[in-house]
Design a protein that fits this description.
By secondary structure, this protein is an alpha/beta fold. The protein contains 16 helices and 19 strands. Strands 10-11-12-7-15-16-18-19 form an eight-stranded mixed sheet, with helices on one face. Helix 7 packs across helix 16.
Length: 458
Amino acid sequence: MKRVVVLGAGRVSSPCVGHLLGKPDIQVRVYDIVPANAARVVAGRPRGESLQLDASKPVGPAIREADVVINLLPAPLQLDVARACVEERKPLVSACYATEPIKALDKPAREAGILILMEMGLDPGIDHMSAVKFIREVEAEGGRVKGFFSWCGALPAPEANTNPFGYKLSWSPGDLVGTLRRPARFLKGGHVVSIQGDALLENYTLKEIEGLGWFEEYPNGDALGYAEIYGIPDAADLFRGTLRYPGWCETLRKMLHLRIHDDEPRDLSGLTFADLTRAMIGEPAGDLKAAVARRLGLDEYSTAMKRIEWLGLLSDRPIGRKRGSMRDVVLDLFLEKLGWSEGERDLVVMQHEYIVEYPCAGVTKRHTSLLVDYGVPGGDTSVARTTGLPVALAAEMILRGRLDLVGVHIPVHPRVYEPILADLASMGIVFRHGEKTLRGGPARRESAGGTRAPRGGG
């Protein structure tokens, strides 16, 4: 009997645990600081066990009997768990980014003879696997990738888009606020473009996704390293972006002017949301809505002001906390107002575009790969499936002895992405492909099911 330890029973854990417990020779222990969360994920299934664990303390004893450890805890808890896995000689799979401190564990992990496989979720994860698979196939046909663009969005499905923000929480709201001020870099025409975190949401454009309509897209992190990671040194354009429904960027940028990211603890006893907003903008009296509009450079009737008012930041309702920061209060409102109703579906959209030169044919083409995946009403969300299943599949490969890499890796090796993309395709997580000739031949467009074989995801 194989033994898997899963650390964290959050929003993406259920499909991961469910897949593993569907195998008759795998036992799964799920640990969470809240015992009820772990019990909910295990759901009484045979060979599943739920236990309490505070992962801010040493986790060595919890993982000591595991054959594989899956870390689904928040990013700040990744490094300590990775170190514990090296000490205990336990292979590790995680959906989080391979930070520099984790990459520094490569030599100790090799010496311990274990694999630390990071970035094994949706984004990062499926984006890497699908892109590298497609790029290697294009190169085998004699092509050279001159531009790579990637977008991903986790959104409500159209029928579930029922609030003014056009967004519902698929993961931690704290992580969401953090990404709104993350600096970004990308290549455009061979030149590096750098965006400071405070200006991130000002640098959005509109993007049409075929069959789905128009979205806002804004830069996501540092794309420059992907030239080396994906093996495309000739690329003059490299861009990674986040997709949101229109209106998101302006509204959240204006909310940042209200210092919604401020994490300084305050005495909130007896305060209303309006009281706190007044304190944040330094307007102790007068018409609050007019004062906020002036501070943000908005008309009172603007859509962004309507959203801020709808969220409750101008409300005379008591906050309900005795102590906390502005960030805490806003996260409470997000949890209250941007939640899901029973039976609603979420939507994951991921699109890659490749500009490829074929020197022998004298042709340049734009290839597109599009993943559109919906959650199951009353069941798992798409975000949970597309994040949790790749992690589970990788852990199962390790258990079966089908993945013999050691050291710190992300899923850009064919021994990882080939079988996992095939398994995901069998579960309905697939990309549609198309192409258009840009130069050197007649323009044409194809999609999955056309004359080209589907690539980059099944």
